[in-house]
Amino acid sequence: MAGQEEHVKNEESVLPAPRGAGADAEGDPLLVVAGLTKHFPVKGGFPIRRTVGQVQAVDGIDLSVRAGESFGLVGESGCGKSTTGRLITRLLEPTAGTITYRGQDISHASRRQLAPIRSEIQMIFQDPYSSLNPRQTVGRIISGPMEVNGIEPEGGREKRVRELLEIVGLNPEHYNRFPHEFSGGQRQRIGVARALALEPKLIVADEPVSALDVSIQAQVVNLLQQVRQELGIAFLFIAHDLAVVRHFSQRVAVMYLGKIIEVGDRDSIYTRPRHPYTHALLSAVPEVNVGDGETAARERIRLAGDVPSPIAPPSGCRFRTRCWKAQDRCAAEEPPLVRISGNHAGHLTACHFPEEPTIEAREEDIVLDPALAALEEGGSAG
Ligand SMILES: Nc1ncnc2c1ncn2[C@@H]1O[C@H](COP(=O)(O)OP(=O)(O)OP(=O)(O)O)[C@@H](O)[C@H]1O
Ligand code: SF4
Ligand SMILES: [Mg+2]
Predict the structure, then answer these.
(1) Is 314 in the pocket of ligand 2 (CB under 6 A)?
(2) Atom 4, ligand 1: which residue's CA is nearest?
(3) Which residue in 252, 283, 284, 247 sits closest to 265, CA to CA?
(4) Is residue 12 included in any domain, yes or no?
(5) How far apart are CA 381 and CA 75, in angstroms?
(6) Residue nearest (by alpha carbon) to ligand 2 atom 3
(7) Is residue 338 part of a domain?
(8) What keywords are assigned to this protein (predicted)?
(9) 99: how many CB neighbours lie within 10 A of its CB?
(10) Each residue of 67-100: pLDDT tens digit?
């Protein structure tokens, strides 16, 4: 299904003009997260169940997303990416730390307090099959958030839904169809239209293309890129590998076991990574054909062992049980996330014995799919 031809209208932009006066200038901090922590209690015991431990899903992360920016959040399964997204959209209550949105502390805001900004932060989910109600028409799905928030656009909701369908490259005539009549990529476009219905300022996209074929991934990423650039919407873009984010995000943070271990602008992360884990992630990207039937040769770093349990993470540096550079100090002292000498401003690394920045080898590691590579041009703008 996901592989079938898509109805795409990307020749010409159909997006309305960006919101003018009153919109945040690109670059202003929209979202600031400080010391954000989420521990889930682990219950055990019989007959009385009590808390016997804590899953340290997210453990004291700092990040900020500027207006109009795409910020990528990357890491292996279980490192706490979705939990971070759910905390920011306030689907989960943080254990500690603060979430500040446009200067307002929303860390523990009540539903009523959140109401005025609810529409401004939207989420796109990974699975376009389970995230759309199969019994509702596309029209109802997309107009749902407008109904819930009592928004009556000029010309009516149906007109607005048709406009949104057009914006995401779907046929407005398909207003009355059901989700099963669409391919995976088209369903994800419906999810995007639903997220856009309330004119958000920030979209948390939790692995929005992971469930799609690579060729379709590029189209959906392209659409999100267009939305970001033309509507000035900021993204927190969550992905499990560095490949997709590279083409979409100006800044990238790498997570491991609930912590951010490296963060920086795109060039720093992809061409001058310093954390051993970032190196390992980059080397894990599948090999690419470089033409003439030859495959680019490069050193592959194989991570030994499994990701430790977030219930009892290793002392000191959490990556130390899989790190080829680990020494005694790594077990005793947690490395702070700091700017290492030689790094660009804003490029922070949490490691006692960082890698040398490698520039040339990495370039080959990260070129993936030509369709995705073609998008990069657009991604660097802004
Ligand atoms: N409601 C919950 N109760 C208990 N533990 C949870 C809960 N939600 C998540 N966790 C645990 O928190 C950790 C982080 O989960 P999270 O879903 O945020 O990871 P992720 O990085 O999004 O992974 P994936 O790439 O698989 O989506 C995992 O160990 C997970 O099992
Ligand atoms: S602090 Fe030590 S264990 Fe952690 S990544 Fe750096 S070298 Fe490896
Ligand atoms: Mg997840």
Answers:
(1) no
(2) 40
(3) 252
(4) no
(5) 25
(6) 320
(7) yes
(8) ATP-binding, Nucleotide-binding, Transport
(9) 21
(10) 999 999 999 999 999 999 999 999 999 999 999 9
Residue 308, domain extent: 29-42+54-120+200-380
Distance 151 CA to ligand 3 centre (A): 31
204, HSE (Cβ side, Cα atoms, 13 Å): 21
In 10 A of CB 87, how many CB atoms?
Answer: 25
Strands 50-66 vs 70-74: parallel, antiparallel or unpaired: unpaired
CB 221 within 8 A of CB 10: no
- What gap in Å lies between CA 2 and CA 187, rounded to an integer? 9
* Nearest of 348, 352, 319, 349 to residue 333 by alpha carbon: 352
Single-letter code of the amino acid located at 99 = I
Whether 126 is covered by a domain: the verdict is no
DSSP 8-class letter at 217: H
Pick from 70, 35, 117: nearest CA to 232? 70
What is the CATH classification number for the domain harbouring 210?
Answer: 3.40.50.300
Whole-model pTM: value is 0.85
CA dist 271 to 32, 251, 254, 279, Å?
A: 26, 13, 14, 10
Count of domains forming the chain = 1
pLDDT tens-place string over residues 16-71: 433 433 345 555 689 999 999 999 999 888 888 888 899 999 999 999 999 999 99
Q: Is the CB of 308 under 6 A from ligand 1?
A: no
CA-CA distance, 16 to 233, in Å (whole number)?
A: 13
